[in-house]
Amino acid sequence: MTDSEDLMQEIEATGAQLIRAREMIARRIVGQEDVVEQTLIAILCGGHGLLVGAPGLAKTRLVETLGTVLGLVAHRIQFTPDLMPADILGAEVLETGADGTRAFRFIDGPIFCQLLMGDEINRASPRTQSALLQAMQEHEVSVAGQRRLLPSPFHVLATQNPIEQEGTYPLPEAQLDRFLLQIDVDYPDRDDEREIVLSTTGATEVQVQPVFDAASLIAAQRLVRRLPVGESVLERILDLVRSARPGTPDAHPAVDLAVSWGPGPRAAQALMLAIRARALIQGRLVPDLDDVAALARPVLIHRMALGFAARAEGQTLDGLISRLVTDVMNVEAAA
């Protein structure tokens, strides 16, 4: 059997498993297909996702469901202004033994899990938010001078309320950059909302079963990195990301006028992985330019910031990213 045939078999098997996972998730999450797909993409890439939406849109329910379906040890932290780093990481306590000897023992914090849900992450102080930086990037934490490895795989799915800003702290740019995707959760349409009302107000609760476990999920994450990407797709990724950086030779004219800071190389890495994961979820061997266009916004929007003048003029990052995607794709069509 050739390497390509072996790869195709793995793609087919993993694709079938992902279909079952999505069907299981759909038992508890009505509609929101794009949200579910993007969240799975973030996890398949080995990354983290930031779910942004108004209260009551099943963000917490989605993360809880994913923990079960993916077979991961999941913990939840409700972020509040008085939350301290030790409440996340854990701490050493002094214990006295039966023989009178004393010794420090480390008590794991909730971050020692495979899927961490950070509910309303922007309500915690910057000091507490910074406790996640090392964990999200290096999958380890340093407590009392000792490095402690986190379980594998390790993912953070954080939620954020974009409406109520009283008592919140904007996430630092360094932390935002560690989220592979920003996943916007919108209101359901009328038919979906009708089904939600009927399915969640009855006497029984819909149950879901594991489809993956930690080992099979890690295998799927490795498979994502093996999917080939065409040279033309790679060039469009680079064109798109580099066009979003103000003050550089490759910057789009609209970006130079409107954007105060743009995405770094981590955005190109995220887009490269994300289009592979999307292709795998959809049962395709090779990602294409449609994948780049579909995932440009979730990858870029939290890695850019509009200047004051652009905001005063009513410009939005949504509109700017759409323009960048259109112009980059036009370059490809004309080439």
Summarize the structure.
This protein is α/β, with parallel strands linked by helices and 335 residues long.
State the main characteristics.
335 residues; alpha/beta; Helicase, Ruva Protein, domain 3; five-stranded parallel β-sheet; two-stranded antiparallel ribbon; 48% helix; 16% strand; globular; disordered C terminus
Give a structural overview.
This protein is an alpha/beta fold and 335 residues long. It has a domain at 229-335: Magnesium chelatase subunit I, C-Terminal domain (Helicase, Ruva Protein, domain 3). 48% of the residues lie in helices and 16% in strands. It is built from 14 helices and eleven strands. A five-stranded parallel β-sheet has the order 2-5-8-1-9. It has a two-stranded antiparallel sheet with strand order 3-4. Strands 6-7 form a two-stranded antiparallel sheet. The longest helix is centred in the N-terminal third of the chain and has 24 residues, at 3-26. Mean pLDDT is 84; it is low at 331-335.
What's the main sheet like?
5 strands, parallel
What name does CATH use for the topology of the domain at 229-335? Helicase, Ruva Protein, domain 3
CATH secondary-structure class of the domain at 229-335: Mainly Alpha
Instruction: Let me know the CATH homologous superfamily of the domain at 229-335.
Output: Magnesium chelatase subunit I, C-Terminal domain
Radius of gyration: 21 Å
**What is the typical, i.e. mean, pLDDT?**
84
Number of helices: 14
Helix content: 40-55%
Termini separation comes to 37 Å
Shape: globular
The run of helices and strands is: HHEHEHEEEHEEEHEHHHHEHHEHH
List segments where confidence is low: pLDDT < 50 over at least 5 consecutive residues. 331-335
Percent strand equals 15-25%
Sequence of strands across the biggest β-sheet: 2-5-8-1-9
Q: Any guess at the CATH architecture of the domain at 229-335?
A: Orthogonal Bundle
